[in-house]
Amino acid sequence: MGSFVNVVIHRLPLNQSIVYPSSSCPRCNSKIKWFDNIPIISWLLLRGKCRACKNKIAFSYPCIELSTGLLFCLNLYAHPTIYSQQPINVILFLGCIFSVILFTLAILDFKYFWLPQVLTSGGLVLGITISFFIDLNNGFYQFNYSFYTLLASLLGFTFFNLLSRIGKKIYNKSVIGGGDAKLSAMIGSWLGIQGLFITIWFAFISAGIFVILGFIFKKIKSNQKIPFGVFLASSALLVWYFGNEIFLEVFFL
Ligand SMILES: [Zn+2]
Predict the structure, then answer these.
(1) Residue 232 and residue 180 in contact, taking contact as beta carbons nearer than 8 Å
(2) Is 224 exposed, middle or buried (0-12, 13-18, 19+ CB in 10 A)?
(3) How many whole angstroms from 57 Cα to the centroid of ligand 1?
(4) CA 188 to CA 173: how far, in whole Å?
(5) How far is ligand 1, taken at its centre, from the CA of residue 109, in Å?
(6) How far is the centre of ligand 1, averaged over its atoms, from the C-alpha of 106 (Å)?
(7) In the predicted model, is pLDDT for residue 173 greater than 90?
């Protein structure tokens, strides 16, 4: 999955297919053989260079592979509030999907200020579909989860849409990208209404702290764009891992 994340973040911005062709060196075009394509290990064995032309392979490749693995492992300990009644293997499986989508989105927003719709809307459809299947599993004519996630995604989209309109009126330029509304709709479809609003609130706080620190250490200029999707995605992941209660207890008591 970590290797797949690498493929997605390198090919999606170039509008290339993510399944075909197989990986090759961007400089000498030589196909990368399977034994040179083992996550982390191959990069270490090749000492970060192409076997054919010795072109440098970025350190970000093994980093992303390792991070994806760590995010997957953390899912062993996740207890998302919305699915607290579900068996551990279901939570583990769902968490792996959710974390890999959020991780990919965070990287793309960080690198290109871009939250591709394939991932946000795709994740939204997936989130609602999953809640629908969990409803079915609980017995027919019970649409508790899917109703809740559908409502949450509508609220998430509307909230950022309104913010964006208000921002445009006040500053005469767009202050919040359209991708953020779709991302927050997707987060709603996975975390439900309460989880969504804890995520949005925590994203604003962490982004605020980040900007203040950036000003203090003179790393951010006053007109600089901030990839807010990174904060939304990482907050959503934290809310999935730790559950809603801990945020409510720590910050609202
Ligand atoms: Zn090469």
Answers:
(1) yes
(2) exposed
(3) 9
(4) 27
(5) 28
(6) 28
(7) no
Ligand 1 centroid from CA 46, angstroms: 12
Tell me the CA–centroid distance for residue 31 and ligand 1, in Å. 9
Give the model's confidence band at 220: pLDDT under 50 very low, under 70 low, under 90 confident, else very high.
confident
Residues 82 and 63 in one domain: no
- For residues 190 and 233, the answer to whether their CB atoms sit within 8 Å is no
Indicate whether 36 and 139 sit together in one domain: no
Same-domain status, 107 and 223: yes
Could you list the residue range(s) of the whole structural domain that residue 241 is in? 78-252
Cα 55 to ligand 1 centre (Å): 5
* Ligand 1 centroid, distance to 27 Cα (angstroms): 5
Distance 51 CA to ligand 1 centre (A): 7
163 plus 45 within the same structural domain = no
* pLDDT the model gives residue 157: 97
| Closest C-alpha to 186, from 117, 249, 108, 89 | 117
Contacts of 92 (CB under 8 A, 6+ apart): 75, 76, 78
Query: From the CA of 193, how far away is ligand 1's center (Å)?
Result: 49
Residues 6+ apart with CB under 8 A from 237: 71, 98, 99, 102, 103
Structurally, the chain folds into a number of domains equal to 2
Say whether pLDDT at 253 is over 70: no
pTM for this structure? 0.94
What does the pLDDT read at residue 14?
93
104 and 39 in a single domain? The answer is no
